[in-house]
Amino acid sequence: MEEEFLKKVQQLYLAKVIDALKAGVSKEIVVKGYSMVPTIQPYQRVRISPCGINSVSEGKIVAYKIVDHPWITVHRAIMIVEKDGKRILRTKGDHMPCPDKYEVTNDTFLGIVSPMNR
Questions:
Q1: N- or C-end of the chain: fewer Cβ atoms within 10 A?
Q2: What is the DSSP string of the chain?
Q3: Listing from the earlier edge strand, what are the strands of the sheet with 86-92?
Q4: pLDDT mean over 73-94
Q5: What distance, in Å, lies between the first and last C-alpha atoms of the chain?
């Protein structure tokens, strides 16, 4: 029961962060995973600054939210392509051997990420 409660709290927090970003408000979050080591360490704070996907250049660290995932992903944009007149980002964690299987679109893109002091 406690696990269900914590899961619900996490979902509500995530929804609030995403709503703020979509309203143009920068947010700080704590990154939990290892996929961006050594650039971003586990449990390091980062700032997500909302902007349009067209503001992203290759090499920038971005945040996005895949519908089926209960978290925000923070990875580096390694390739930018145009598909059917829309910008698509290909991303990869610095510590990961392969690019992400998801394409980041305007619908899933949340903003550009700046690591904060460790």
A1: N
A2: -HHHHHHHHHHHHHHHHHHHHHTT--EEEEE-SSTTTTTS-TTEEEEEE---GGG--TT-EEEE--TT-SS-EEEEEEEEEEETTEEEEEEE-TT-SS--SSEE-TTTEEEEEEEPP-
A3: 27-31, 44-49, 109-115, 61-64, 73-83, 86-92, 103-104
A4: 96
A5: 34
* pLDDT level of residue 6 (50, 70, 90 thresholds): confident
pTM of the model: 0.91
Each residue of 52-62: pLDDT tens digit?
A: 999 999 999 99
Nearest to 29 by CA among 6, 7, 41, 47: 47
Which residue type does 70 have?
P
How far apart are the C-alpha atoms of 40 and 114, rounded to whole Å?
10
User: Any bridge partners for residue 87, and if so which?
Assistant: 82
